[in-house]
Amino acid sequence: MQKRIAIMSNAGGTGKTTFAVNLAYQLARIGQSVCLLGCDPNGSLTLFAGLDDPPEPAQTLDHVLNTSFSGDYPLYPVWPDRMEGIDAVLGGLVLTQTAKRLEKEPRGAYLLADALEDHPLSHDVLLLDCPGTIERFHEVALSASTHVLVVIRPVDKDIDAGFKLLNWIYDARKVLRLKPAPEILGVCPNGFRKDLAMHRDNMGNDPERSLPEALKSMGIHKFPTIRESAHLTNASANGLPLGIWRTGEEINKAFEEIAQMIVEV
Q1: Could you please report the per-residue DSSP string of 180-193?
Q2: CA–CA distance from 47 to each of 14, 71, 91, 134 (Å)?
Q3: Which end of the chain lies in a sparser environment, N or C, as judged by fewer CB atoms within 10 Å?
Q4: Distance CA 78, CA 37 (A)
Q5: At a CB cut-off of 8 Å and minimum separation 6, what does 117 contact?
Q6: d(CA 48, CA 38)
Q7: Percent share of the chain, pLDDT over 70
Q8: Is residue 180 reached through a cis peptide bond, with omega within 30 degrees of 0 on the bond before it?
Q9: In terms of DSSP bridges, do strands 76-77 and 86-89 run parallel, antiparallel, or are they unpaired?
Q10: pLDDT tens digits for 32-58?
């Protein structure tokens, strides 16, 4: 069964797109074909995947989110000179207008789900890179997904926003009448720095602020923590996953572990 995973956050700068790109790479390394779907108007996926901005809306996700869509997905191979098995449908600034159009469509929140049902992609895993704050595209992605993975930076405001996002997911699944409802795979703390007291406290030093304990009490899985790394940032800026940019970097093991967990779901 194809896994469609909405990668969400409720704050900017959580490293959500970097996470998606590196996860796609590790999934492909273990034999999974992957399609990245750029649901974010900021277009970070295009940069981090080493691609050029699509010249026309018809070459973006906007084209897919039309009632007249006939299955001709605008797929872009990602790192084709390095590996096989990863494609992308890109987002970008055009999606700001797409979101306005979807507000007027009777099935606006379900158009991506409709497209994937009527014209299935053949990939093993779809990774939906959502915007950094809750908006129309969160509904679009949630309706089209089988699973949700939330990325959170271990700072107070982002954790608070992350739990509000989780509550929104619970409510939206009911409002949108999603059957089956997409499962929350878990939360991944991202950008951890051991030299910051707030990060250490939120990741377990302070029992009253412990993110792992709070997730455990809610029955939500915590994925391996991704520490902050200049190598990871530099890799993204050069349009590559860390696994290609710096093969021996330890952080790759965390992404490998998460990829394996997803395969086994």
Answers
A1: SPPEEEEEEEEEE-
A2: 16, 25, 11, 22
A3: N
A4: 12
A5: none
A6: 11
A7: 100
A8: yes
A9: antiparallel
A10: 999 999 999 998 999 999 999 988 999
The pLDDT tens digits for 200-253 are 999 988 777 799 999 999 999 999 999 999 999 999 999 999 999 999 999 999
SS3 71: coil
Give the torsion sign (CA, 29, 30, 35, 37).
negative
Spatial distance between the Cα atoms of 190 and 132, rounded to a whole number of angstroms = 14
| pTM for the predicted model, two decimal places | 0.96
Contact 60, 53 (CB under 8 A): no
Please return the burial class of 186, using the count of CB atoms within 10 Å of its CB with bins 0-12, 13-18 and 19+: middle
Structure tokens at 215: 């997730």
Run of H or E residues at 139? helix 136-144
**Model confidence pLDDT, tens digit, residues 132-187:** 989 899 999 999 999 999 999 999 999 999 999 999 999 999 999 999 999 999 99
How far apart (Å, rounded) are the C-alpha atoms in residues 189 and 223? Answer: 7
Hey, what are 81's tokens? 């000179």
Give the rounded distance of the alpha carbon of 37 from its chain centre: 9
pLDDT score recorded for residue 21: 97
Q: Rounded CA gap, 133 and 10, in Å?
A: 4
